[in-house]
Amino acid sequence: MNQLRDKAPTKRKGISYAKWGYLFIAPFFITYAIFNLYPLILTIYNSFFENYRSGLKQVGPNFVGLANYIKLFTPDANGTIDILKYAGNTVVLWLGGAIPQIVIALLLAIFFTSYRLNIKGQQFFKTVIYMPNLIMASAFSMLFFTLFSNVGPVNQLLMQMGIADQPIDFFSIKITVRGLICLMNFLLWFGNTTILLMAGIMGIDQNMFEAANIDGASATQTFFKVTLPLLTPILVYTIITALIGGLQMFDVPQVLTNGMGTPNRTSTTLIMYLNNYLKTSKNYGMSGAISVIIFIITGLLSILVYRSLTKKD
């Protein structure tokens, strides 16, 4: 009996497959750590050091604590704090392109997904409105620079129509430069936003719209009481991604104003300001400080937008 008891089968341990899940997601986390997390930590680290090139001489790296941040918020001879001025420029340029982008994209999304209208040739219109998103922003900027230059077709047309007696220098007028930048950002991204919002509307249960129709709700009531509340998660996502992209605006104003931010630096953005430090003196300390401030501004504004557009059930 003892021998039989000794030979009794033992309970097998359960097989755990969790390790395979960790193995499959490991490449993402490794890539993120190398190409995102490490540069972020290095940027924050560099922001506390004096590290730049003066001619052929390399200064630093020398630990200076918060000196770079203090310098950024110190007014110049004219009493202007550059980083605040450029932050204001960036927000104004983003709002000028983002507000019409969201509004028109939302209207187009409702227009194309309406079962009452039943628009024909939707695939063609979707392709057309998305095409500007495929064009490089720098190429788009060069096109607008050519169109609105002193010898460009816009000035030639205005003079032929008798509207202007001489060429208008669009790039020396604050409102026209900002207007062109906002227009380009709108044209580049409204197609992408329209596609996202269309996907969000098509994901809403059609029974909700049918119930609203049976209850006698008008199209406006259906939009504000059914479509908009259920579309909020996608809408919040599009606004926050537009915000992040807007605060990182660089290529459009850089190319359009030849990096000068004309007139009088009113179209200089935060990333252009950052690029000037990297391009002229390779000042990694100041560049790191500017990057950290942009990161903080982006985070705070994203939280503000999220809190404003969402509410607890």
Salient structural properties:
313 residues; mainly alpha; two-stranded antiparallel sheet; 13 helices; globular
Would you give an account of this structure?
By secondary structure, the chain is mostly helical. The protein has 13 helices and two strands. The protein has a two-stranded antiparallel sheet. A hairpin with a 2-residue loop joins strand 1 and strand 2 (57-63). Helix 4 (82-113) packs across helix 8 (174-202) and helix 6 (137-148) packs across helix 8. The radius of gyration is 27 Å and the shape is globular. The mean pLDDT is 87.
Question: How would you summarize what this structure contains?
Answer:
It is built from 13 helices and two strands, in the order ααββααααααααααα.
Rg calc: 27 Å
DSSP strand tally: 2
What share of residues is helical? Answer: 55-70%
**Main β sheet profile:** 2 strands, antiparallel
* Shape assignment: globular
Q: Strand-and-helix sequence, N→C?
A: HHEEHHHHHHHHHHH
Question: Secondary structure elements and their pairing?
Answer:
Layout: H1 2-6, H2 18-46, E1 49-54, E2 57-63, H3 67-72, H4 82-113, H5 122-130, H6 137-148, H7 153-160, H8 174-202, H9 206-214, H10 219-247, H11 251-256, H12 270-280, H13 284-309
Antiparallel strand pairs: 1-2
